[in-house]
Specification:
Helix content is about 10%, strand content about 40%. The protein is mainly beta and about 190 residues long. The chain has 2 domains: about 15-40 and about 105-185; about 45-100, no CATH class. It has a 5-stranded antiparallel beta sheet with strand order 1-2-7-8-10. A 3-stranded mixed beta sheet has the order 6-3-9.
Amino acid sequence: MRNPELMKLGDPNPDFTLGIRNTFNYRAIRFTSLIDIRQGGDVWNGVEAIMRQNGQSRETERRGETVIFDGVKEDGSPNDIPVELNQFYWQNIEGYSNVNEPFVEDASWIRLRDVTLSYALSPAFTNRIGLSSATVSLWGRNLLLITGYSGIDPETNLYGPDRSIGIDYYNNPSARSFGVEINLAL
């Protein structure tokens, strides 16, 4: 049943966040990585809400199916009322315009935030070319995301990083990037 009162459906704030930085050195090679963990918090998947309303979600492929939802009627007896999953159902019950509770999801994730592999050139070589040190690094950011969230990225939010969290409404995901870095010291 739809509740006529507006109510809080979720909390975008995580229970905790944790970052684990690892650094491994072997001779002239250095490997570093950062694993970010976010536990808890909620995100509203507005993209899925609109897609269901418009009949574009995979969930709406069940059009025309008749189902009896688990639950009880107002008198406490088991629900036995069949409902046809027609366009009215998807637009008005499961769609964006009325009930948003089905679209509030857990925003927990584990993310490989960054990885860097560096090689320090030998002092014998760098001294010969007039440098005290030189390092070449390959790096990558946002390389892996493990989450139960059905949208694009639970870290994204509609209003940018400083305004709010927990609203996914056709937002861009965190960018994946790669690069090469050269550090020279005189």
